[in-house]
Amino acid sequence: MLLKGVVSAWLLLEAAIAAPTRQSPLVLEKQKSPYNLDHYDPYDRKFDSYGEHVQPLPMRNGKGTDMLGPRNRDRERQNPDMLRPPTTDHGTMKNMHWSFADSHIRIEEGGWTRQTTVRELPSSVELAAVNMRLDEGVIRELHWHKEAEWAYVLKGSVRITALDTEGGSFIDDLEEGDLWYFPSGHPHSLQGLSPNGTEFLLIFDDGNFSEDSTFLLTDWLHHTPLSVVAENFRLPPEVFKELPEEEKYIFQGSLPGPIDKEKPAAFKKSKLQFTHKMLAQKPKEASGGKVRITDSTNFPISKTVAAAHLDIGPGALREMHWHPNADEWSYVIRGRARVTIFAAEGNARTFDFMPGDVGIVPRNMGHFIENLSDDEPLEMLEIFRADKFLDFSLFQWMGETPKRLVLDHLFATDPKSGAKFAKAIEDAEKDVIKEHYSIDDDSYEDEL
Ligand SMILES: *[C@@H]1O[C@H](CO)[C@@H](O)[C@H](O)[C@H]1NC(C)=O
Ligand SMILES: *[C@@H]1O[C@H](CO)[C@@H](O)[C@H](O)[C@H]1NC(C)=O
Ligand SMILES: *[C@@H]1O[C@H](CO)[C@@H](O)[C@H](O)[C@H]1NC(C)=O
After folding, report:
1. C-alpha of residue 386 to centroid of ligand 3, in Å
2. 196 lines ligand 2 (CB under 6 A)
3. How far apart are CA 296 and CA 157, in angstroms?
4. Above 50 in pLDDT, residue 1?
5. Which of 425, 417, 422 is nearest to 443 (CA)?
6. Given the DSSP bridges, would you call strands 59-60 and 178-182 parallel, antiparallel or unpaired?
7. What pLDDT sits at residue 341?
8. Statement: 102-276 belongs to CATH 2.60.120.10
9. Average pLDDT over every residue of 36-50
10. Cβ atoms within 10 A of the Cβ of 95, count?
């Protein structure tokens, strides 16, 4: 009943604005709820049901009907394109969406960790991720693992330590927007700094990674005969009688001092740079946003992980593109997004994303990212198991292909529109994020 009320309120509102005065397209878009049988939209526009507090219904262009059974309304609002997919979606596609909100969380002293791996999201084959929080002074124990580790600091500040294969050592403090990279097997530690510690996103270059199966200092010593530990460190065995009896993993530590005061006598500075300031990079300006790319060209140690940080502005579109060298593993930091993945053979499926959500786009599959939210910028990471960030732009491809060839493909029966298209792609500049363009200016009223 309540829902019907909402729907008819929308209809009334629509009737009220159907007056002759022309509304700005964004306003018009805001006022139209697509969830009723009278709503026709030949263009499959995005609709932010979460931001607009509108409950989606499976109704599209006169088809479908309401829902009678049990529903998870919160999830439906978060994924409006599941309940009412664009008409262009088709076929079966594996799930490409996961939310960290659905990951089991491991709670430890002063911190927590949760992971998204191939076990949570079967299409996450190339990369696995961990979201971790360490409060002030809290330590992620000295450890190493088979997989290389790449990280992006989401909030707060963190001290890292690492050792390289030549005995060189590394210590650094990082803040929001900074990265680190530890190659496979390199031992390291992490510690939250004042005042409130840190939270970060870790990426491992194997979807099968498990945060619970790393090589920990305390675990190793506890499973080595004390006689050997004693011999190794040239000390009597009694010295080790109070070693921890189980792994410490995440635990409250003492607060670190300034880096220079912390360096031990044996410290030899590593020739490698394990950290990088990604957000401090000068962005590449696109017409609708900003892009920062970090890969082995500007962060040489990061041989197996490449990434792009995207700020997608008002109504803007991360253009139609694909990546030839790796699956995309994306993570939303702020805002909401609509993504359609094109998988060849006529298959396409649309997914929506909230902050803390993870998406996969398999290598070479065409896709775009739309800013879906009305009130927040869209900020996200695209991450790849690759040494370089590579993408192909549909726009650029069209512009750099002989015009005759392109028009023969797309406009053989409509040369007038072909001429408009040829003009639009003339300069062929790749524009990674395209500024808002209102399709409604030209055609909205014709369609009504
Ligand atoms: C992950 O590991 C399991 C068990 O070893 C194996 O069966 C599976 O094929 C692996 N998956 C990937 C994506 O490597
Ligand atoms: C640290 O946390 C406290 C308590 O939540 C908060 O009031 C304060 O603003 C935080 N400080 C910073 C620098 O984030
Ligand atoms: C995202 O796009 C919507 C239009 O779809 C726009 O109204 C909103 O301002 C955008 N968010 C921001 C501020 O980037």
Report:
1. 31
2. yes
3. 24
4. no
5. 417
6. unpaired
7. 98
8. yes
9. 93
10. 11
Mean pLDDT of 5-28: 41
SS3 434: strand
Task: Give the atom of ligand 3 at the shortest distance from the alpha carbon of 315.
Answer: 2
Question: Where are the domains positioned within the chain?
Answer: 2-83, 102-276
Alpha carbon of 207 to ligand 1 centroid (Å): 8
* Residue 7: pLDDT over 80: no
- Residue with structure tokens 């002759």? 20
Q: Whose CA is nearest to atom 4 of ligand 1?
A: 208
Determine the distance from the C-alpha atom of residue 269 to the mean position of all C-alpha atoms in its chain, rounded to a whole number.
Answer: 34
The residues, ordered by sequence, that sit 6+ positions from 338 with a Cβ below 8 Å of its Cβ are 46, 81, 350, 351, 352, 353, 369, 370, 372
Query: Residue holding tokens 């409006």?
Result: 80
Atom 10 (ligand 2) nearest CA: 196
Once rounded to an integer, what is the mean pLDDT over residues 160-181? Answer: 98
User: Which residue, by CA, sits nearest to atom 14 of ligand 2?
Assistant: 196
Name the closest ligand to CA 205. 1
* pLDDT reading at 14 higher than 50: no
Which pLDDT belongs to residue 440? Answer: 65
Helix-helix angle 415-424:403-410, to 10 degrees: 130
Q: Tell me: the pLDDT tens digits for 403-433?
A: 999 999 999 999 999 999 999 999 888 888 8
95 and 121 Cβ atoms separated by less than 8 Å: yes
Which ligand 2 atom sits closest to the C-alpha of 196? 1
Is 143 annotated to bind a ligand? Reply is yes
Residues 113, 119, 124, 126, CA torsion sign: positive
Tokens of 71: 């529903």
For ligand 1, atom 8: residue with the closest CA: 208
Active-site residue numbers?
A: 382
Could you identify the atom of ligand 1 that is nearest to the CA of residue 206?
Answer: 14
Residues 6+ apart with CB under 8 A from 27: none
Q: What is the pTM of this model?
A: 0.89
